[in-house]
Amino acid sequence: MAEPLRCSLNVTFHFPGVPLLDALDGAARAGFHTIELLDPYSPELDDLERELKRRGLRLDLFNLPMGDFAAGDRGIAADPERRDEFRRGTERAVVIAARLGATKVNGLVGRRIDTIPESSQLALAAEQLGWAAERLESLGVSVVTEMLNPVESPGLLLRDLATTRWLVEQLEGRVGLLLDLYHLQRTHGELIRTIEATSAITRHVQIADAPGRSEPGSGEIAYGNVLAALAGSGYAGIIGCEYRPSGPDVDPFAWMDQMGAVKA
Question: Has 146 been annotated as catalytic?
């Protein structure tokens, strides 16, 4: 019998607008022991470490500092004006990863800047992500990066899979691909073919159904087939549930039993 797919919960997405401690309670009540956080930088680290331990939760993945998220920033690694800011943020991430036992950090690279050649931006993104990977390697922490779909996040440097894959491959194994199936569906589709084609560089997977970014089974993605292809590709890592429940009376985890997944 095949091993079940192990899933963590992205508490930032699953409990939007909910205070962090309440969201952690919600994750524990739902039966998760492994979580993702969009932004672990606001709470005091001592407090966050204590509250995770108290609830028996482990942080698997979090983002490198993304800039001003409310103003549209989605990472700063490709901005030459913010080179030092990125590195200071990475040093904060090193401390957090070491204290909380995270295994991966996601380095979003940010906006396409029209006044700079795209090749120069990609070179800077590769330099910055490579530097971050070196800083985190001794902790056993992997750096990953991803594309975001241009429907919801227009104007980003990594706006399609081809560009993102090129960047990851330039880093020759030092940085992996975060394969977000929701963003991929909204940009390209062809999920099963892409899972197979990127299996060698994929180090983390996130899921949500499209177009509503809710639980599998709520939208257009045939997740039974997609997750079977993911398992068949040899992926054995954690899958991040980065979605919001589709309604107040919906069990957002009912799909797991049907599709061979368990809460990690």
Answer: yes
